[in-house]
Amino acid sequence: MEPIGTFLMPLYAIASWYGLYTHGNTGKYMLPVSLVGWLWAVINVIRTKRLDLGIVTFFFVLLTSLYERHVGLFTRGMKLSLCISSILVATNYSLVIAFWKQIRKDLVKSKSELWCTIFYLYCAAMMAFWVCACARTHVRGETGYVTRMS
């Protein structure tokens, strides 16, 4: 039987892309997507006793998203913070792609070929998601730098 991550990775990726598609103009998707990513990284660290950079990278998106929700304003500084933190998360996912040959060699010792394939595709999809999230954030509020989050 495949581990739960085999099913959760595609579901999380689909839900993330759906959030970007439906709420890209407001950024409402950033908080839930970053919260799930951060919690997942925390669980990975607890479970494996190894550092998951997602704890750091998702935390920045999470903080900025929480602040935007609390204050309700989208400023230049917030836009910059969200863009930088999104690129950091994308970079984190890209490390898997860049070092896949070695990572896969370690993973196949404990994971199935199916899981490894899904993990690789998940990392590629989420890297692209966070690049698109940055691009969408960059153009959000172009009619004025400060907009109310509804």
Tell me briefly what this model is.
The chain has 150 residues and is mainly α.
Folded structure, characterized:
This protein has 150 residues and is an all-alpha fold. The chain has one domain (5-138). The protein is built from 6 helices and no strands. The chain has helices at residues 5-23, 30-48, 54-71, 76-98, 100-107, 113-139. Helix 1 (5-23) packs parallel to helix 6 and helix 3 packs antiparallel against helix 4 (76-98). It is elongated and about 50 Å long. The N and C termini lie far apart (43 Å). Mean pLDDT is 92; it is low at 144-150.
Q: How confident is the prediction overall: mean pLDDT?
A: 92
State the end-to-end distance: 43 Å
How many helices?
A: 6
Task: Give the radius of gyration.
Answer: 16 Å
What is the domain total for the residues? 1
The count of DSSP E runs of length 2 or more, i.e. the number of strands, is 0
Coarse morphology: elongated
The ordered H/E elements are: HHHHHH
User: What level of helicity do the residues show?
Assistant: over 70%
Beta-strand content bin: under 5%
Descriptive tags:
6 helices, 76% helix, 150 residues, mainly alpha, elongated
Fold blueprint:
Blueprint: H1 5-23, H2 30-48, H3 54-71, H4 76-98, H5 100-107, H6 113-139
